[in-house]
């Protein structure tokens, strides 16, 4: 280890060295911070803005007569989507379970197929007791989306997410939305005017 | 850090197992002969520039997609949407130039000090190899945004590979990933740029820095001999080095802020583009102008090969005598002569372009197109389609390519366009209320039908008369009626009451020549006026009875346009109503 040029403490050149050390440390620290800050902001971009956005307006999902009373039907929702730099005028942004609850006037329950537990896709079982079941962790739901507790367990923190819908021109229209999974509260995420 | 004391605690534990702390201490304690000097900053600064390129490169890879449909869009997204994307990309873009500049400075300083002599031959050789790697980085990185500049410059570069005797075709095909440019080209350039070259870079850098640790700094031959004034690296030389790095970082930030990393329009294989390489390749480009035809090989292989051989052999040729540059003129003169030659060729290439009006026009047009593409890519809900095309920009490109602007002026004419007076309606603000209203008030103005067969001819009774006399209420109503026909969104939205109020004046004043049900009349049918369907029909045949009949013969048919091109053109024409004038 070379120490020959380190002068004894207390000499003028030791004082000069201390100044140089302080200065070098300061410049080094400033440079590091000046580089780290923009890097952190760049990497944190997704915290400020979602790169995928789709239209949240009412979207036509099918003619009213398409849906049978009491029988869950899965339909895809097509909407304009902005995926980072790409704009697609019509692309499948998600799917919903539609259950017709009345013939005349037509009434419906519309549920997001996304399981409120961890986001798997909820299946229809065809069973009366638990018409909806998530294949991932066995969350079960009724025809209206409410949690069904069988054998004491159901990991879902809330019922299936019901979506706003309307009947217009003999067709069913749905406002597709996504919600945060794993929370008891329903918190919209990931959409926005597109 | 420079004290020789042993480490305790966590650092001590780490050092006992790795020796890293001691190693770092030794590095900080390396003797700088004769004390700190600017001459010694280049290597360290260059190494830091490499690290900065690595850092910014990794960050760019978080958003970049190497496909011919998505590369441009993803770079656009980085540059314009991602937080500080312009800075990270700017630092990477200008950092590439900084690396080249620092490398030339480092090499020149090393050369002048004769630091390649024994025992440092391998330091020099690994350095020359690093130079080759850096040039490879630049060559592969230039293409990645898939913009006009990178695309055409790389076409030329791979074209040069193709001229190599014997193996040329195979080399070119391997470089391009086939016989034409596309996804395969982009992905292999990307893989080379982010995996192969970094591995080579860090391998060579480890060797280079390791050898530097082993042999230490070379005393500068122009300083008085002896150990007088020698000092450890820390803190004196370290401080100088940090200042140099800070200067580089500040320069990169300033360049990113002022010039900004350029992103030209998306690559267009049909374009008429003046390809130019990045500035530090211009001397090679210029060399090819000098050595042309059968002499091409001199510029592409012989001279660069000779320079490479000179640099590689240098430590074995120049071995004896004083290291002072004055004592090594046989080597110093060709080295500096080569640098001057490179500088001269670069200057010549720049000057020739600056003096060539045709090149200037094309470069100006490239800048305009770059700005247009970036502006249109950000248009809400239109932007970039699934084919990776900037929809409105493609429309403008079709407009340009089909020379629509020679008759229909929009904005100011493109650079290099002849000063022909546009003879058909100006399309600034096309389909906007103001544009329609202007037409109703004075259709025979020069910027409308004034220079066409559709100009009002009272004697023949042809052309459209002016309706300014109808008064503002009727004109507003008629304007609203016509604006509503396209079904496009207007700002403010179409007022249905005003549209309804147009029924009476339309019947009284317009219906003799125009219908609203698509049937033929003297003038064009206004049903769906300005809609995609209406415009598609017009482009196909302006003389169709539904449009302008024989009086529309001044406009050529554009039925040769492909369906997508027609769609892009129409999207752009319809967008004109929203553009600021």
TL;DR?
The complex is a heterodimer of chains A (194) and B (581). By secondary structure, chain A is an alpha+beta fold.
Polypeptide structure, described:
The complex is a heterodimer of chains A (194) and B (581). Chain A is an alpha+beta fold. Chain A has helices at residues 12-43, 45-48; strands at 52-54, 58-63, 73-83, 86-102, 107-112, 123-124, 132-133, 140-141, 165-168, 171-175, 178-179, 188-189. In chain A, the strands form 4 sheets. Chain A has a 4-stranded antiparallel sheet, with no helix packed on it. A 3-stranded antiparallel sheet of chain A has the order 2-10-9, with no helix packed on it. In chain A, strands 6-7-8 form a 3-stranded antiparallel sheet, with no helix packed on it. Chain A is elongated, with a radius of gyration of 29 Å. Chain B has 3 domains: 24-219 and 230-263, Cytochrome Bc1 Complex, Chain C (Up-down Bundle), CATH 1.20.810.10; 282-355, no CATH class; 362-581, no CATH class. Chain B has helices spanning 9-18, 20-29, 41-61, 71-80, 85-112, 121-141, 148-162, 168-176, 183-215, 233-258, 282-290, 296-317, 329-355, 357-377, 391-401, 433-441, 472-485, 496-501, 503-510, 532-540, 563-575, and strands spanning 31-32, 231-232. Chain B has a two-stranded antiparallel ribbon with strand order 1-2. The mean pLDDT of chain B is 92. The A-B interface holds A 1-3, 5-6, 17, 20-21, 23-24, 27-28, 30-31, 34-35, 38-39, 41-45, 48-49, 51, 80, 82, 84-88, 194 and B 2-4, 25-26, 29-31, 52, 55, 59, 62-63, 70, 73-74, 76-77, 81-85, 87-88, 230-232, 234-236, 238-239, 242-243, 245-246, 249, 377, 381-386, 388, 391.
């Amino acid at each position: 280890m070379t120490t020959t040029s380190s002068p004894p403490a207390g000499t003028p050149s030791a004082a000069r060295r201390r100044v140089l050390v302080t200065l070098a440390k300061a410049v080094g620290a400033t440079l590091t911070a000046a580089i780290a800050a923009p890097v952190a902001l760049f990497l944190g971009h997704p915290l400020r803005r979602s790169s995928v956005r789709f239209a949240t307006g009412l979207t036509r999902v099918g003619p009213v007569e398409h849906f049978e009373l009491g029988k869950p039907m899965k339909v895809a929702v097509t909407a304009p989507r902005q995926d980072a730099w790409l704009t697609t005028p019509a692309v499948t942004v998600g799917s919903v379970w539609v259950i017709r609850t009345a013939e005349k006037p037509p009434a419906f329950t519309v549920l997001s197929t996304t399981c409120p537990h961890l986001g798997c896709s909820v299946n229809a079982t065809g069973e009366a007791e638990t018409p909806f079941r998530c294949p991932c962790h066995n969350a079960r739901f009724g025809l209206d989306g409410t949690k069904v507790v069988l054998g004491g367990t159901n990991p879902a923190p809330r019922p299936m997410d019901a979506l706003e819908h309307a009947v217009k021109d003999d067709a069913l229209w749905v406002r597709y939305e996504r919600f945060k999974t794993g929370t008891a509260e329903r918190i919209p995420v990931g959409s926005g005017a597109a | 850090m420079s004290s020789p004391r042993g480490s305790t605690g966590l650092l001590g534990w780490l050092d006992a197992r790795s020796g890293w702390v001691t190693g770092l201490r030794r590095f900080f304690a390396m003797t700088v002969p004769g004390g700190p000097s600017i001459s010694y900053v280049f290597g360290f600064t260059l190494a830091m520039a490499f690290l900065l390129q690595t850092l910014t490169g990794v960050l760019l890879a978080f958003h970049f997609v190497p496909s011919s449909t998505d590369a441009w869009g993803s770079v656009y997204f980085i540059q314009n949407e991602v937080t500080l994307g312009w800075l990270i990309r700017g630092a990477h873009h200008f950092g590439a130039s900084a690396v080249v500049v620092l490398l030339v400075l480092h090499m020149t300083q090393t050369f002048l000090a004769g630091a390649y002599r024994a025992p440092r031959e391998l330091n020099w050789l690994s350095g020359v190899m690093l130079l080759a790697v850096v040039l490879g980085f630049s060559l592969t990185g230039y293409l990645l945004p898939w913009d006009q500049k990178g695309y055409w410059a790389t076409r030329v570069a791979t074209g040069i590979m193709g001229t190599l005797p014997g193996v040329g075709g195979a080399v070119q095909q391997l470089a391009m990933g086939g016989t034409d440019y596309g996804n395969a080209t982009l992905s292999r350039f990307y893989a080379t740029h982010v995996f192969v070259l970094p591995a080579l870079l860090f391998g060579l850098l480890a060797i280079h820095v390791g050898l530097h640790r082993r042999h230490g700094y070379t005393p500068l031959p122009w300083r008085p001999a002896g150990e007088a004034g020698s000092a450890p690296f820390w803190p004196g030389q370290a401080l100088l080095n940090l200042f140099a790095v800070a200067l580089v970082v500040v320069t990169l930030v300033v360049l990113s802020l002022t010039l900004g990393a350029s992103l030209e329009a998306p690559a267009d294989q049909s374009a008429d583009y003046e390809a130019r390489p990045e500035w530090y390749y211009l001397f090679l480009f210029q060399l090819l102008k000098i050595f042309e035809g059968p002499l091409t090989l001199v510029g592409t292989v012989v001279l660069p090969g000779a320079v490479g051989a000179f640099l590689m052999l240098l430590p074995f040729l120049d071995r004896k005598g004083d290291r002072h540059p004055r004592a090594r003129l046989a080597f110093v003169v060709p080295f500096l002569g080569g640098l001057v030659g490179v500088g001269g060729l670069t200057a010549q290439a720049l000057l020739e372009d600056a003096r060539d009006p045709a090149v200037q026009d094309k470069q100006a047009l490239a800048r305009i197109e770059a700005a247009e593409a970036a502006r249109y890519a950000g248009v809400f809900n239109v932007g970039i389609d699934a084919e990776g095309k900037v929809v409105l920009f493609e429309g403008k490109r079709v407009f340009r390519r089909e020379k629509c602007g020679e008759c229909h002026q929009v904005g100011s004419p493109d650079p290099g366009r002849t000063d022909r007076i546009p003879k058909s309606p100006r399309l600034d603000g096309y389909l906007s209320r103001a544009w329609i209203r202007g037409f109703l008030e004075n259709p025979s103005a020069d910027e409308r039908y004034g220079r066409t067969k559709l100009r009002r001819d009272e004697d023949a009774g042809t052309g459209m008369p002016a309706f300014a006399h109808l008064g503002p209420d009727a004109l507003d109503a008629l304007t609203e009626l016509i604006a509503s026909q396209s079904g496009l969104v207007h700002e403010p939205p179409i007022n249905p009451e005003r549209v309804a109020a147009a029924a009476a004046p339309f019947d009284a004043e317009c219906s003799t020549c125009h219908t609203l049900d698509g049937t033929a009349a003297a003038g064009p049918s206004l049903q769906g006026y300005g809609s995609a369907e209406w415009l598609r029909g017009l482009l196909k045949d302006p003389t169709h009875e539904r449009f302008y009949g024989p009086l529309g013969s001044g406009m050529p048919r554009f039925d040769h346009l492909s369906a997508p091109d027609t769609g892009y053109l129409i999207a752009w024409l319809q967008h004109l109503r929203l553009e600021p004038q």
